[in-house]
Amino acid sequence: MKKPEIISKINLQKIKQNKTIKELLEFGIINLDKPSGMTSFDVSNFVKKKLKLRKTSHFGTLDPKVTGVLPIALNRACKLTRYFLGEDKEYTGIMRVHKPTSLKKIEQAIKEKFIGVISQLPPVRSRVKRQERKREVKKFDLLEKNNTDIKFHVEVQGGTYIRKLIHDLGQYLGIGAHMIKLRRTRAGIFKEKNSISLENLEKISENEEKLKEVIIPGEIISEIYPVVQIKEESSEKILHGKPIFYEDLEEKISFEKGKIICAFVNKKFIGIYKIANEKNIFAKPEFVLQPLE
């Protein structure tokens, strides 16, 4: 008997080609370009109503005035939302300094205090608990200056408040600063160049062929977390909530306890699991994708 092929890299394009529009709407993601003036909830709700879905959710809140990349999960893909939230983000924006100062002085302040791991206290209006937390600023580049308005680009750890970053920079400089414009150009693996506007989504919402082109299979989660292959004969019990035992694995593999993995049977997504390393239990389920009836 031929030994099954071990697939560690999932071909998303093939998965997408083999799915119906119904399957993509049931477990898919749309990379939206959020317009100014709408809340993230408004955008999510618009998609829900326009595509006649049971449920939608967004990957990380953007302020109403902020534009750019806002992935929207569809139906059962909403269960994946929290697994994407901690991914790095990129933004371009404009800050306004309250007194004339040189780019060189601002760049020096960034180098001293606002690059690498920084401490941030969430804004007063934030819904999260106001306690200091560590976040990493990976890049903070000043692109051009027009009087007191300065265009910038940042790459940051998920959960970093850009408005607060600019405010804190202004305080450190002793001149004050605030953000007047912001656009998110990347949220983890979702990029600006692959996003679709609400206007264009509305135009193609009744066209199954074009709609299929813009929906990303939920299996894209496998580009963030490692893939573990399960034996086909074990899949039925695992789909009903059974933990993954070492004997269920196609090949012997080890991970640190607590690590998140994606379980597949060949090209079929089973779910998200957390490594247990308990006696004969390899991993326990966090989210299991039951087959459509």
Folded structure, characterized:
The chain is built from 9 helices and 16 strands. By secondary structure, the protein is α+β, with helices and mostly antiparallel strands.
Number of domains: 3
The number of helical runs is: 9
Assembly type:
single chain
Order of SSEs, N→C?
HHEHEEHEHEEEHEEEHHEEHEEEE
Strand segment tally:
16
Spans where pLDDT lies below 50 across 5 or more residues: 1-7
Largest sheet: 11 strands, mixed
Q: What is the structural class? A: alpha+beta
CATH architecture of the largest domain: 2-Layer Sandwich
Kindly report the average pLDDT value. 92
Bin the helical content.
10-25%
CATH level 1 name of the largest domain: Alpha Beta
Radius of gyration: 22 Å
* Tertiary shape: globular
Range of strand content: 35-45%
CATH superfamily of the largest domain: Pseudouridine synthase
Defining traits:
293 residues; 3 domains; single chain; Alpha-Beta Plaits; alpha+beta; Archaeosine Trna-guanine Transglycosylase, Chain: A, domain 4; Pseudouridine synthase; 24% helix; 9 helices; disordered N terminus; globular
